[in-house]
Write a structure and sequence with these properties.
single chain; 237 residues; alpha/beta; eight-stranded parallel barrel; 11 helices; 44% helix; 16% strand; globular; binds cytidine-5'-monophosphate
Amino acid sequence: MPASDPKIIVALDSPGSKQALKLADQLDPQACRLKVGKELFTAAGPSVVRELHSLGFEIFLDLKFHDIPNTTANACAMAAELGVWMVNVHASGGRAMMERCVEELSGFGADRPRLVGVTVLTSLNEAELKEVGVSRSPNEQVLLLAQLAQSSGLDGVVCSAQEAQQLRQHLDDSFLLVTPGIRPKTSDTNDQKRIATPSEALESGVNYLVIGRPITQAENPRLALLDINNEIQLAGH
Ligand code: C5P
């Protein structure tokens, strides 16, 4: 486990363990955590998580579970058995689902994975939400689901930097905000639309920054990570 609490979570969006491990080899577990998502996990399975653990990294298992309470809670327990640092579920799975997950994870003690909720996928706009029967605006729906996640006992939510400011005003200080769509000033925006720099996001009350391509596709990923950590420190975070 890193001695520090690095704020950066590097998204290892690789199609297999070989590429993921090659990248991880260039990074420092004291300077970041790693996110294993659906692509890498479907390709490589739990063994890639074990290998990344053996390199000293803490892992955010980003599988966004969404199922009946019993199935979701059991999946969370398997993530805890695997020893991951963070795991997530869709908050729209409802209170009973989230509470069962919290209860299941509490059996793993203080070292249990942090459990965070996904509110509204940032790829969905207002018209698409209406199409699936949600008449609130995306912002209102994000706040409603984040408050439900908090009152169900979750440790935090995944949100955009733009949502973070509003959420911070309505949620406990200790409730974690985990935010993708981060781009250092000098980086390509890729396909991300609503972006923030690492310092802007932290100023909005974000606790952890999920950053993929600006680090994983940099010529020197270790240096790119170091630069971002320096920017954060210089800004007083
Ligand atoms: O390469 P990039 O920094 O854009 O990667 C961001 C990571 O965060 C990816 O793994 C992406 O799937 C994830 N993510 C996101 N936007 C969301 C939720 C997750 O970019 N709303």
